[in-house]
Specification:
The protein has helices at 2-7, 12-39, 43-54, 65-78, 84-89, 97-101, 108-126, 133-150, 162-172, 177-195, 208-245, and strands at residues 202-203, 206-207, 247-248, 252-253. It has 261 residues and is mainly alpha-helical.
Length: 261
Amino acid sequence: VAIGNCCRRSDRSQRVAVLLAAVGAAVAVVTIVTAPVVAAGGFWRMTGALVGLAAGDDFGSAANIWWLVGHAGRVVHRFDGGGVFDMLVMPASTVPFSTMKDFGLPAPELLGLLAFASVYLWALWTARRVGETWLIAALGGLAFHAYFSLAAQAHSHHLYPAVPLLVLAAAGRSAFTPVLFGVSGVSDLNMCFSDGPGVRLDLLWIDATLLLAGANLVLLAWHAAVFHRQTVHFLRHRDTETQRRNFIPERGLVPHDSIGY
């Protein structure tokens, strides 16, 4: 969100101010959130847990593309070339990256990072001239959604930060309201399936987490399409308004900076 907000600033000092404010706010939030843990003497345990999570060798619990890829690789590895039926009826679970590397697939964590970076950079470029609060919030929501859906080590709770950002975006642009409901539903169901009571839910003998992962990928594509459409609409409307304000009947359309007022 801070980067997107910087992109719309023409003055360099304003960009630096926005980045410094964002960094300061991030430090303040982290300090407030971690203060109770540090006070209780759990700083090193917390740090170790975070380092272990980042260095982990397993796919995360997010209902994303890697949940499907990892499940397919696990089935093929276990059944020595299991078919589509085995992939549908076998319960899904987290698998190590080594399962995919055995099939010659490059590092999934790197592929996931590249996929996420591609979507994020595309969104930044699309919104590079946007100065509207609602679309800047939508940019942040799309970034979190893309990370959740494409990163190999994403977990179920990593989608939740997209929800409040999409609430803000939907408050100003109603086109994001259905996307908000979809992202909220995926976030809630994913945390329920993976972090809840652990009860496996089948739909037509298919693990519901597989269906949720497939639905989430469709939702991400729709989310990106809505973001692109709303951004293009905003830019066209703004350009039309600029041309209307700069129009003088006697002189036609003239540059704004050539008008003496």
